[in-house]
Amino acid sequence: xxxxxxxxxxxxxxxxxxxxxxxxxPRLFYLMYVEGRWExxxxxxxxxxxxxxVDRIDxxxxxxxxxxxxxxxxxxxxxxxxxxARSVSLAADDLGLMGKLDLVSADPEGGEAVPVETKRGRVPxxxxxxxxxxxxxxxxxxxxxxxxxxxxxxxxxxxxGSRTRVRVEFDTELETLTLATLAAVRVARSxxxxxxxxxxxxxxxxxxxxxxxxxxxTLELKQSAHHSDEDTGPDPRRLYxxxxxxxxxxxxxxxxxxxxxxxxxxxxxxxxxxxxxxxxETSQLVLFGNIQVSAQALHLLMxxxxxxxxxxxxxxxxxxxxxxxxxxxxxxxxxYAAAADPAFRIRLIAPLLYAKGVNQRALILxxxxxxxxxxxxxxxxxxxxxxxxxxxxxxxxxTIPTEAAIQYLRGWEGHAAALYFxxxxxxxxxxxxxxxxxxxxxxxxxxDPVNALLSFAYxxxxxxxxxxxxxxxxxxxxxxxxSPRHGRPALALDFMEPFRPILADSAVLTAINTGMVxxxxxxxxxxxxxxxxxxxxxxxxxxxxxxxxxxxxxxxNYRCSWRTMLRIQARLLVRFLRGDISRLPWPIVR
Length: 590
Known about the structure:
alpha/beta; Lambda Exonuclease, Chain A; CATH 3.100.10.20; six-stranded mixed sheet
């Protein structure tokens, strides 16, 4: 018999809560307990608040009065009331099962115990008045109590929304189901293939991991490796908010220090507070140049899973500070295996570059003018047709690509970029303002304000892509198209290619054409062009406005922000690498 003290978990122990999650959805179980994923939503926060009373103080299970007390007895009028113990940790060695019971009503004299599990929400309208996940979880608690010598033939689920207790009988059928679930969970913890999502299930509504699971999106992309314009069913449901509540917190005041006060970041300089941001509203802390972060603030950010991005004043990426994050060896193993497979690299790279070319042409069609616009879009259309034909030929004949094919794609992309930037000036609405003339893309350092803005926007996009990939447990430094090099986030550079024109270039055009950036925001001489702090603030504002803008997802036809789309794309990339989906569409605007 195990004692009632808090058990020391090992890899073989199964937690009672795991049985609930597995019964509810095997894919949810896999994401939580194999991949270590978790996100809060309003329902999980409410559930924690409801559990706060029972979780406040850990208590011990009352000891039985004698060995004979395990037999049930009739409770008379003069018998003492049952003892109530809250937040009781138990374990059973023979089952390999452990768990923390919300509440136990125990009668040490009579040897009886009744577990009570607290749940948010109302009593469900089902015949047994409790769903299987709750019944299995409660039965597992009953098994633990039995292993500790108590007689336990029923339990209660307390639904806080209804303020009602529902009795659950521990019959043979429920015990058999619970033991079978325990065995299934032990097997499920060792598999490396993610279970399929539930199909059009109401369980997905309200699930805190729906934005990670992407059930409807996954099912749509599982149908075929070939894109079809035919309507194969209803559009995927958007099961998560269209916009993120949390956004990056940028700090560029040189000599400032970032500290914390409670659940809030505070920026001070010379003892005076110059800015602040609530932790709950912060997705990243981005530092430009000479800015310090206190150890207390850094620890809080790591605890909350919020990365700290270190950049130079000119937006050169220096590094990232973060907590443990998603340490998913399976994702990285799949990434490295795919990067070593030339055929898989072509399957990934060719559609990615095609999407970039289509988006470049779309941006010119939307914003360009004159003969330059007409010539460039016509040439790009012909260029895109050539690559499209090559992609389709590779699909039909299943040709085995070589490194020469990748070099061909690099040449194709270089020519498309040359055509695109030859028409970039036609999208600038600056009138006689010569400061923002553009003739050629240049960098390291940029020679003019337009190139300075483009370089800064590309640095911001690289940062966003790097964080999105890192958040999914991928290695941002090992790519498929850009060659891996020390200090070069090759996968982030791959990932950002289709988003360059529609995010970075679009933000630059908005900043220039609306007058958000002005000539006095730049210092220019024969050695290059430097952006002043006011100019960085202006382009950051344009950049954040663009990422927060709602758009219709071209594949799934629901509305979401561009920042949300970046996160979705990173998660779809993982699913593609792991074989969970058959094709990986890249966002294309029309």
